[in-house]
UniProtKB/TrEMBL annotation:
Name of this protein: Rhodanese-like domain-containing protein
InterPro entries: GlpE_sulfurtransferase, Rhodanese-like_dom, Rhodanese-like_dom_sf
PROSITE patterns named among the record's database cross-references: RHODANESE_3
Organism: Lampropedia puyangensis
CDD domains on file: RHOD
PANTHER family in alphabetical order: FAD-DEPENDENT OXIDOREDUCTASE (PTHR43031), RHODANESE-RELATED SULFURTRANSFERASES (PTHR43031:SF18)
Residues in Rhodanese domain copies: 44-134
Length: 138
């Protein structure tokens, strides 16, 4: 018993370090965002659908190849046309990644459990040097 009382701080350190091992696992399970590089991997390997929720003008000026344009207020009505299979990953992109969270919430409400935000949005996509395409609504 003396050992426990004299070395209580060692037990605290052990408990804290053990808990820290589980924190990343907990946060990943509910993760609703991917980096631009992870988005490319999902697009290539899992055939993820990309939904651009920026304005029509911003979309036409430059967007991710294959991305479909759906305004944020139309996500619930039009998502079924973009991603018919609810098991398919759906990646939402906006200008900086902040507004896309609302689209993810709407998609998850509709049953799209693999809906995620491209973190940093188009700003991060451009900074990563990833390709864009221009043109009218896809």
């Amino acid at each position: 018993m003396n050992f426990l009382l004299e070395n209580w701080y060692l037990f605290v350190v052990a408990l804290v370090s053990g808990a820290m091992l589980f924190v990343p696992a907990l946060s990943k399970s509910g993760s609703a965002s991917v980096t631009p590089a992870q988005a490319v991997q999902k697009m290539n390997s899992e055939k993820a659908a990309v939904v651009d929720i920026r304005s029509s003008e911003d979309y036409a000026a430059g967007h991710i190849k294959g991305a479909k344009h759906v305004s944020l207020d139309q996500v619930e009505q039009q998502l079924g046309n973009v991603a018919k299979n609810k098991a398919t990953p759906v990646l939402f992109v906006c200008a900086t990644g902040t507004r896309a969270g609302k689209a993810v919430a709407a998609a998850k409400k509709l049953g799209y459990e693999q809906a995620q935000v491209v973190s940093g949005g188009m700003k991060a996509w451009k900074e990563a040097g990833l390709p864009l395409t221009t043109g009218a609504k896809a």
